[in-house]
Design brief:
With 147 residues, the protein is mainly α. It contains 7 helices and 2 strands, in the order H-H-E-E-H-H-H-H-H. It has a two-stranded antiparallel sheet with strand order 1-2. It is globular. The model has no long low-confidence stretch (mean pLDDT 91).
Length: 147
């Protein structure tokens, strides 16, 4: 029933299921705000132009590190709902190998029901955050498997 061609990593699939159980947009927003509150603080020193996500109305920063073949992200935003989107993506993608992250399709957002709740600029921001995270993972993949 999934619209994505590659199965979602377990961590992301659990998040999708959590949102599927929320039947109205207000509950989905509350879920996003819950994720925003859970997000670990990002060091101010990492909030640099090279870590800033382009194409977002709000200020969004993402860093990524590769440890033992797995990608670990940190992020932050000055907007609470966007911070929730950042937290959702970090929880869903942290600890995965770069190739798994690169293979995730952004279509999973439709399964959460969030796409109908988000304003066009927030939906676009989500996509830009997701693409930034994939780009960082791809950089690690290429660095560890140059072909």
């Amino acid at each position: 029933m999934s619209s994505t061609s590659t199965p979602l990593p377990d961590s992301l699939a659990k998040i999708v299921q959590r949102f599927k159980r929320r039947t109205n947009p207000k509950q989905r927003y509350e879920q996003l705000l819950w994720y925003a509150k859970k997000l670990q603080d990002m060091p101010e020193a990492d909030k640099t132009p090279e870590n800033k996500v382009q194409g977002c109305v709000s200020q969004v920063y993402i860093t990524a590190n590769l440890e033992d073949g797995k990608v670990w992200y940190q992020g932050d935003s000055d907007a609470q709902l966007v911070k929730g989107l950042v937290a959702l993506l970090i929880e869903g993608l942290n600890g995965l190998p770069p190739e798994d992250i690169v293979n995730v399709s952004p279509e999973f957002i439709q399964e959460t029901g969030l796409n109908v709740s988000l304003t066009p600029s927030r939906a676009n921001g989500f996509y830009n955050i997701f693409q930034t995270m994939k780009k960082k993972a791809l950089g690690f993949k290429l660095a560890t498997n140059p072909s």
